[in-house]
Amino acid sequence: MDEDISIINTNTRKEKIKNFFINNKKSLVTFISLALLIIFTYFFLEEVKDRKIKSLSEKYNNIIINFNNSDKINIKNQLIEIIKKKDSTYSPLALYFIIDNEIQASNQEINEYFDIIINETSLEKEIKNLIIYKKGLFNSEFETENNLIAILKPVINSDSVWKSHALYLMAEYFFDKNQKQKAKEFYNQILSYEKSNEKIILITQKRLRRDFSE
To answer: What pLDDT is recorded for position 48?
Structure first.
């Protein structure tokens, strides 16, 4: 008797499953097709992304290899094209190459390229903070104190690993201008910030002992 009931229950379950698939055939086919489409699209986009990165890599490496033998204007235009691709790796590298090799570009142009990378490129948080710091470093040679502070403010007001670097840049900026009180305030912020870089702490301590001791 129990065996018969078990057989009946098994058959009933099989029948329900069969009916479920029959009744929902269209929905299931649509769902499976959609799932396959999503998977296909994902891998397709990843392939396209990889090809773009490979293309940028080859272009950037060719620029470096042929730099000394190429037309500087053409090189600059190629580097700008890479910057405007807004790639997290090669756009910053292209900008650094322009700056490091003193390829002719105005300060305004350089800052515009920095802004493209900082504001329009998808970057990891600390990479973005590093680029903001580098923008501050570039501008420290000619910008006013208010503008320089405005550039570095996102890093100075954060818990970034680059915060102490930004504070030290501002301290040295004021020290070079013989504004020692303002410089001292930034040096002291470095010492009071618990996550400050150890090397920067040591340099700061030496600076305070040597130039601020009464």
So the answer is: 46
Which of these, 175, 154, 178, lies nearest to 166 by C-alpha position? 154
Which of 27, 78, 28, 23 lies closest to 56, judged by CA? Answer: 78
Helix, strand, coil percentages in the chain from 3-state DSSP, rounded to 5:
80, 0, 20
The whole-number pLDDT of residue 56 equals: 80
Return the pLDDT at 182. 96
Task: Report the C-alpha gap between 136 and 70 in whole angstroms.
Answer: 30
Beta carbons within 10 angstroms of residue 155's beta carbon: 26
Which residues does 173 contact at the CB level (< 8 Å), separation at least 6?
140, 145, 148, 183
C-beta of residue 82 within 8 angstroms of C-beta of residue 108: no
3-state secondary structure at position 117: helix
Closest by alpha carbon to 186, among 210, 204, 161?
204
